[in-house]
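Render this sequence as a predicted structure.
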Amino acid sequence: MSRPITIVEVGPRDGLQNEKVVLEPAVRAELVRRLEAAGARRIEAVSFVHPKYVPQMAGAEEVMAALPPAPGRSRIGLVLNGKGYDRALGTAVDEVNVAMSATDGFGLKNQGLSVDQQVTMLADIVAGRRNAEGQPGATPALSATLSCVWGCPFDGEVSTQQVEDLVGRIGELGVAEIALADTIGVGDPWSVTRKVEAARRAAPEAVLRLHFHDTRNTGLANAFAGVEAGVDVLDASVGGIGGCPFAPGATGNIATEDLVYMLERAGFETGYDLDALIETARWIGERIGRSAPSALSRAGGWPRG
C-alpha cells in the first residue's frame, strides 16, 4: 500500500480560529516553525479575514513577516473574497486558498455571499491572475476549498449532485486543486466515496483534496475512504484542535498525528516525524490552555522507541 500521501497542516489557521485564547502573531509563527520542523511541507499558516469577525486570525501579515524563508515548504493563506486575496498578495504566502461554500446558507453566514456570488468572486480572482501574468513578482498558487460538502448547519443535507455541479463550475475556471470539506463533521465513509467520484467526474483535471472534522467520530474513517478512493492530499490539524466559528457545534479537524500514525502503520509515506508532531500538539495545548484532544497526544505512538 506504499504511496506518498500529502498532509496539509491546517492547525495554525483552522486549528486556532475557534479557540477561546487569542495567540499573538509571534506564537502562531512559532507554531508554523515547529510544524515545519516536524515535517509539514504544506501548511495553512494564516487567514486574511477581518479581525472583527475572527480575532484569532488578526495580524496575518505579522505572522508571515516573522517566518524565515523555507525552501521546499509552502505557506498557504486562506481568503474569503477579493479584498483578502489582495492582502495575501502583499505577503510572502506561497499559495492562496479561496474558501467557498456548497450552500447559500453557510456562504451568506460565513462571507456574505451566495453560491453564485462566490463563483463570480472566484472568477474575478482568476481573471485578475491572468491579467497579471508576465508582470514582475511571482503569483502564488491558487486552490479552492468547498465547505459544507457533506452537510450545512443552516441548509441541512447537501446532495451529491449539488457538489458535482459546483465542483464542475470551479474546475471550468481552471483552479488546479479543489478541496472538499466536511465542515461540521457529518459525513460517512460511503458518502465520501460517492462525492469523491462525483467531483472527479466534474473536474477531472483538478487535484482533489479532502478536509474532515471529527465532530461525530468519523473523521479518520472518512480519511481512509478518501485514500481508498485515490485521493492523495488530506488536511489535518495538529492536536485535533479547532473548528469553525460560523458552524455551530463543529469541533476540530482530524488530528495530524493520529492521521500520520494510521497511514504510516499501513505503509503509506507522509514525511512527518510522529514524535515531533506529538510534542508540538502538547506544546500548542499548553498555549491554548487545554490538552490537545488527539488520541496520540495522550497515548503516544507504537511501537515505542
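Summary. Residues 167 and 199 are 6 Å apart (CA to CA). The chain is about 40% helix and 15% strand.
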